Fold these 2 entries.
Entry 1:
Amino acid sequence: GNSVTQMEGPVTLSEEAFLTINCTYTATGYPSLFWYVQYPGEGLQLLLKATKADDKGSNKGFEATYRKETTSFHLEKGSVQVSDSAVYFCALRANTGGFKTIFGAGTRLFVKA
Amino acid sequence: DVKVTQSSRYLVKRTGEKVFLECVQDMDHENMFWYRQDPGLGLRLIYFSYDVKMKEKGDIPEGYSVSREKKERFSLILESASTNQTSMYLCASSLPPLGTGGNQPQHFGDGTRLSIL
C-alpha cells in the first residue's frame, strides 16, 4: 500500500541555518505530494505541493522537488527563522483508489535565536 | 480562502457521555475527513465522507460514528466517551481528485482538544 516515511525529530537549528527534512514515499501510479506545516495550537496548513515528477513546489522560502527516481520529496530552506518552529508533515494523495491522503509521522523543528 | 471551522477549541466531557464534534466548511467541498492526532502516532483517519450522506471508515473507526446531512457539515460522534479518546481531533475538507490527478490538498480546521475525564 501507499506510505510516507519522514525523518524523525526533533530537529534543532540555529537561526539562519540550512534546513533539510527528508521524506520518501511508496505509491503506485503517480501521486501528488505535499508538505503541510502545523504551528503550535493550530491545525495543519498546506505549505507546498507538487503534482508530477520533477515539479518543484515552493512557498515562504521552502522548496521541495518531486523525485520519482528516488521516490523522495525532501523539504529544504536556505535560512530558517525562529518563526519556522513547527511540525512539518510530508503527505501523498494517490491518483487511483480513492480519496485518502497519507501523512508521514511529522518532524518537529525548533529554531533557536 | 477555504475556511474550516470546528465548533470548539477545547472540550471536557465525562466517561460514558455522548459527544458531538462539529465541523463546517465554506467552500462547497465534496470530501470531508476526521482525524485524531496523538503524540508519537501522527494523524490517524477516523472516518471520511466523499459526498452528502456518504461515509467510509478510516483506519480507527471503533467507538466513533459520523453524520453528513448537509454538504458543508460533517459531525463526529463519540457514542460513549472513554478516557482513551482523549486527543486532538482535526477536521479537514477537500475537492475530490481531479480525474487521474490526485492533486487536491486538504484544508484543516484548528482542531478540538478533547479531554475525557
Entry 2:
Amino acid sequence: EAGVTQFPSHSVIEKGQTVTLRCDPISGHDNLYWYRRVMGKEIKFLLHFVKESKQDESGMPNNRFLAERTGGTYSTLKVQPAELEDSGVYFCASSQTRLSPLHFGNGTRLTVT
Amino acid sequence: AQTVTQSQPEMSVQEAETVTLSCTYDTSESDYYLFWYKQPPSRQMILVIRQEAYKQQNATENRFSVNFQKAAKSFSLKISDSQLGDAAMYFCAYRSAGDGNQFYFGTGTSLTVIP
C-alpha cells in the first residue's frame, strides 16, 4: 500500500510569505495528525483530524496556522504569514483507528528566512 | 502534561556491537503506551517497537528490545548486533491509553553505526 506522502519535501520562503503543506494519508485512514519538530527540540503535536473534523487542535501555535481536511482525504496546513520561528520539519501521520499505530510521512522541511 | 526526555543527543556504536538508548518520561497516568520510532536520513519515521504499560514483560522485535521500568518511568531501547542500516534518529514517544490522542516525543537520539 502507498504510505503517507507529504509535499513539498522542502520549502524555503521569506518571512511574511505564505506556504501550504500537503499531506496524503494512507487510504482508509480516518485519523490524520500534524506534528512539528523545531531544530534540536522534541516533535510536538499540532492537531488531529478524524475524517474531515478537527478532533484536537490544541497544539496549533497561533492563528497564522490553518489546517484543513476537505472530504476527509488529504490535508493541508497553511502558514500565513510565515515567521522565522515557524522553521522546522512538519510531519504528517495517519492511522486507521485512534489506537492503531501511526504511519508517518517523510516530513516537509520548512525554512523561513 | 506528559514529558519525554532523551538525554543522549548523539550515540555511536561499532557494527555488530550492542547499544542502549535512554528514555525517561513523566506522567501521572497508570495506563499508557510507549514507543520507539526510527527516522533514517531523508526517509520516513517508522515504528521500531511498542510497549503497553500494563504489560510487565519487555517488548522484543528481533534485534530490538526494551527495558521498561514502570516505577522508574524509564524506557530504554537496546539494539543488538548493530547494523549499518540502524543508523538513524531515534525518537522515544508516549501516548495515553485514555481519550487523549496526542503522542509526546523526546528530542531524539542520533545513532551512528561505525563500520
